[in-house]
Write a structure and sequence with these properties.
Strand order of the largest sheet: 3-2-1-4-5-6-7
Radius of gyration: 18 Å
Protein name: 3-hydroxybutyrate dehydrogenase
CATH superfamily of the largest domain: NAD(P)-binding Rossmann-like Domain
CATH topology of the largest domain: Rossmann fold
Number of helices: 8
InterPro entries: 3-OHbutyrate_DH (IPR011294), NAD(P)-bd_dom_sf (IPR036291), Sc_DH/Rdtase_CS (IPR020904), SDR (IPR050259), SDR_fam (IPR002347)
EC number: 1.1.1.30
Family: Belongs to the short-chain dehydrogenases/reductases (SDR) family.
Number of strands: 7
Distance between the termini: 34 Å
Strand content: 5-15%
Shape: globular
GO molecular function: 3-hydroxybutyrate dehydrogenase activity
Length: 265
């Protein structure tokens, strides 16, 4: 039975939403009647086809803005676009991210700069642009997609871990700062989710290690998750819908962990 979270007619911007987690979260919001602005890179024809299909299936208004999340002015343009299209902004989901894996001494400095810009700095710039709009409305929801790596570390991912820890810290500070404004700010910290990127890694790891793909999933990818199961998109969507609805009004400055027990060990 579908749950009505009372979000009909609200407006959301979801960064990095042309695939993976962001796309799943945008879909969940549109299914609740939220008008959404998608953002991200990819094949333009596929992005348009996906946008149109989501709009037709849900009857929510779905738009797209191709802001480069490493560029502050384009981020400002993204927020301005949402307001110009819909007249308001109720929900901001900061999800954009990239990954690069290497030891610190071999990590290209330009990759460090890119990870920090797209994961951490974009969260600041988008929030900075959205907050005055939400304050004027007397209500708003900011949800930052962090990671279990925002709470614990893994080797060879130092910039990603640093950026995600920064997202969690920024979220906590924002929650305290905005506590009396009607705006909440929370982070969701997923464990491993079976995104297209992870699926490709499973195939590559199986070939490299000479073991079956199910062994790669359990012994390599999911080694840190006690459940030995991937976090599902709908589990993250459920957390998002709680946080952006009135049910989540008292949750702010929090890092909500959805990681199959990873950070409990």
């Amino acid at each position: 039975m579908a749950v009505d979270y009372g979000l009909q007619g609200q407006v959301a911007v979801i960064t990095g939403s042309t695939s993976g987690i962001g796309q799943a979260l945008a879909t969940a919001l549109a299914e609740q009647g939220v008008n959404v602005v998608l953002n991200g890179f990819g094949d333009p024809a596929k992005i348009e086809a996906d946008r149109r299909a989501l709009q037709e299936r849900t009857n929510a208004a779905v738009r797209y803005h191709g802001a480069d999340m490493s560029k502050p002015q384009e981020i400002n343009d993204l927020i301005d676009y949402a307001v110009s299209e819909f007249g308001r902004l109720d929900i901001l989901v900061n999800n954009a991210g990239i990954q690069h894996v290497a030891p610190v001494e071999e990590f290209p400095p330009e990759k460090w700069d890119a990870l920090i810009a797209i994961i951490l700095s974009s969260t600041f710039h988008a929030s900075r642009a959205a907050i005055p709009i939400m304050k004027a409305q007397g209500r708003g929801r900011i949800v930052n997609i962090a990671s279990a790596h925002g709470l614990v570390a893994s080797p060879f991912k130092a910039p990603y871990v640093a950026a995600k820890h920064g997202v969690v810290g920024f979220t906590r500070a924002l929650g305290v700062e905005l506590a009396r404004t009607g705006i909440t700010a929370n982070a969701i910290c997923p464990g491993y989710v079976k995104t297209p990127l992870i699926e490709a890694q499973i195939v590559d790891q199986a070939k490299t290690r000479g073991i079956p793909e199910d062994r790669v999933m359990e012994d390599v990818i999911l080694a840190a998750q006690p459940t030995k199961k991937f976090v599902e998109y709908e589990h993250l969507a459920g957390m998002l819908l709680y946080l952006v609805s009135d049910l989540g009004a008292s949750a702010t400055g929090s890092a909500m962990v959805v990681d199959g027990g990873w950070t409990a060990t």
